User: Which sequence fits this backbone?
């Protein structure tokens, strides 16, 4: 995984450290250099740690660090340039998303049964997420800019529906299941205000066989390909199969299409007020399909 700070100056990912092992790292775009962040005491193969995301303001990288060859813990970078172990229930954990200022981190913790339960860390203090019925939520993927919303994968309590969870109130909102016959429903990207969420609905298998979705507050979940095509954009038979994220303003969606090429969907003008979300598509300017190297499923 790799991610970019809001101002585009830093990229979070992984790079080779001085000892030859890969480590969570930050790439400085201006200088063209990587800074590796070490590990937390363990190694799996040649990996000590891995960067999965970066706070919008660039101050905090999150990801995982290996405790031993089979167990990893969620980690967050420190001001001193190393990694802080966020801990785990006893198995593994991983941090996948982070708020703009780094105060809220989200991911998962492995339970005794092996299930990946959604978890968030508020200034390092962990909370395992459950819905209003006490049913556990599956792994979390992303956090809104202010840390108020966490989104994640369908499963367990939601009966397959992806969800958004409010870290202030503890309330869970299920987003719907576009295709109830599919096996995997996931929310992967959220706008800064939490009101636009992208994801996918698919059976287990190659990513290009999935159905990309967009959820808009007040308007519900839609098929992303149909949504874009309905605005008159010619996708040349491609399906926007695997959205991986959305910009802070909710106007740019990116991911992989049905031909395993990268895509970028650009929307304008600025995000409308909630009462006019149904009109969001009226500002669709176009779709830029940028061919990238072929990628496999997650």
Assistant:
């Amino acid at each position: 995984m790799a991610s970019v700070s809001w101002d585009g100056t830093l990229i979070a990912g992984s790079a080779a450290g001085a000892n030859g092992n890969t480590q969570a790292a930050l790439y400085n775009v201006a200088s063209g250099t990587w800074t590796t962040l070490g590990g937390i005491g363990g190694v799996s193969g040649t990996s000590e740690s891995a960067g999965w995301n970066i706070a919008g303001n660039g101050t905090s990288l999150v990801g995982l660090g290996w405790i031993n060859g089979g167990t990893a813990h969620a980690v967050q970078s420190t001001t001193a340039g190393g990694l802080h172990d966020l801990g785990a229930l006893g198995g593994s954990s991983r941090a996948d998303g982070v708020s703009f200022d780094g105060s809220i981190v989200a991911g998962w913790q492995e339970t005794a049964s092996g299930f990946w339960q959604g978890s968030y860390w508020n200034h390092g203090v962990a909370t395992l997420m459950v819905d209003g019925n006490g049913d556990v939520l599956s792994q979390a993927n992303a956090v809104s800019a202010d840390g108020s919303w966490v989104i994640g994968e369908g499963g367990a309590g939601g009966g397959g529906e992806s969800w958004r969870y409010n870290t202030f109130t503890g309330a869970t909102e299920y987003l719907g299941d576009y295709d109830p016959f599919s096996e995997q429903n996931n929310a992967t990207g959220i706008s800064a205000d939490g009101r636009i969420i992208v994801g996918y609905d698919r059976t287990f298998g190659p990513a290009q066989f999935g159905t990309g979705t967009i959820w808009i507050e007040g308007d519900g979940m839609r098929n992303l390909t149909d949504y874009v095509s309905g605005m008159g954009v010619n996708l040349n038979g491609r399906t926007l199969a695997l959205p991986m994220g959305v910009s802070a303003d909710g106007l740019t969606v990116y991911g992989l299409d049905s031909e395993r090429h990268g895509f970028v969907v650009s929307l304008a003008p600025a995000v409308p007020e909630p009462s006019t979300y149904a009109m969001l598509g009226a500002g669709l300017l176009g779709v830029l399909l940028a061919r990238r190297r072929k990628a496999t499923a997650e």
Remarks:
- The longest strand covers residues 61-68.
